[in-house]
Amino acid sequence: MLRTRLTLASTTAVLSLALAGCATGPIPDASTPITQSEAQAGAEAHPELLAEFGGAMTGSQALYVEQVGKNIAVQSGLGNARDSFTVSLLNSSVNNAFAIPGGYIYTTRQLVALMNNEAELAGVLGHEVGHVAARHSQRRQAAAQRNTLLGAAGAILSGILLGDSGLGQQIGQTLMQGSQLLTLKFSRSQELEADGLGIRYLNQAGYDPHAMATVLQSLASQNALDARLQGRDNATIPEWASTHPDPASRVAGANATAQGLSGVTNRDTFLTRIDGLLYGDDPKQGVIEGREFIHPELRLAFTAPQGFYMVNGTRAVTVNGQSGKAQLTLGQYNGNLNTYVQGVFSGLSQQQQVTPSSIQRTTVNGLPAAYGTARVASGGSQVDVTVFAYEFASDRAYHFLAITPAGQASTFNEMFSSMRRISAQQAGNIIPRVIDVITVRVGDTVASLASRMAYSDNQVERFRVLNGLGANDGVVAGQKVKIVVRGS
């Protein structure tokens, strides 16, 4: 979340990037320079994307990512490629990377932290350069050129709870309006074209092209771990929840494409350069600790229901579970909570009016609050839509928008009642996590190193995924590895 306001969530905890595969079709001609119109289109969208993904990071780590990105862009053959590309490291805890027309390439710090060498970084960025070089955005239908994808919350809410009605679509869009999914969706054939280009760029630059497969494997492992940590049975990334196809299905293809090729990985250089990189939630945007969401700067906290998991994004916190979905966000507030709640309902649908049976006033942990629930018929069934709002100041209010099957609105009552202010001392106790690159010593084991991870659960599993280690892989003295520790 932004420093001054809640951010709208990435609507899935496992939003990921699948980059590589076996390019079976012809590689497109990617030698045409970026045009002035393409550059202008990218320049107009660039500030909005930075804002949606927590802003661009600065400093030595961002400069390193930019350097690798520009070096791989040169391999595209585009005229003035180094000068024509803008490469940004985003302050986001989501595993993602994407590109927009005009040579604008993005990767999140979380995805960089999951990588284990420079070749993997070059592969991710090279794939995105391939999208730009092959004009994939321009080749899509104009109506979808800047498509905001339905994420997990929006798609599940509109597809499962609300069916395919216009109301479901409107509510789903409300839940992810302006979200981090403001990225471009490409067809599978376009992904394969970008894969082929990315692997070609790696080979031409002297990197090991197999790095494309290893970063995909890390993403697949992270997806599976996230699913277990969040209590989800299925680790697969649905098509609507990802800007790229699922990585697990493309590892073999990437290895097949790179067969017989070799090159450098620059592992130690990469690890040294990302040492100290922020990992997970940025306290300035709020943090998730178990079932607790705590925002030190906005001085608020709440507790998600048992069995639900949360996703923190750039403008909201999403709460996901089998029996309902909810988001906490904010809106314009004029000092009247009743008007605020009614305004949220009024904005849900253009097809039909959504009106609560009543708006009730209450107090939650000293906070003035108001709430209402509307029963909505949709797709042959009914759902309950609840808005629960809190006043934190005369000009500042936040609200939950929750959707449950009819008769189950009480699912979120405990969460609604948990909203509270936090003290300055509680806010000060929130310390960020960072990547700490260490050298394995004689006697160190996976278990002993994992015990130093700044988590109370699944330390070994987190350590293995972070370092690209399989279930039977060990560590050797002198090897550099990553652990996650509390920063300062």
TrEMBL record:
Keyword Lipid biosynthesis: no
Biological processes annotated in GO: proteolysis involved in protein catabolic process
Listed cofactors: Zn(2+)
Cross-referenced CDD domains: LysM, M48C_Oma1-like
Residues annotated as signal peptide: 1-23
Keyword field: Hydrolase, Metal-binding, Metalloprotease, Protease, Signal, Zinc
Domain annotation LysM: ranges: 436-483
Classification via InterPro entries: LysM (IPR018392), Mito/Outer_Membr_Metalloprot (IPR051156), Peptidase_M48 (IPR001915)
GO molecular function: metal ion binding; metalloendopeptidase activity
GO cellular component: membrane
Protein name: M48 family metalloprotease
Organism from which the protein derives: Erythrobacter mangrovi
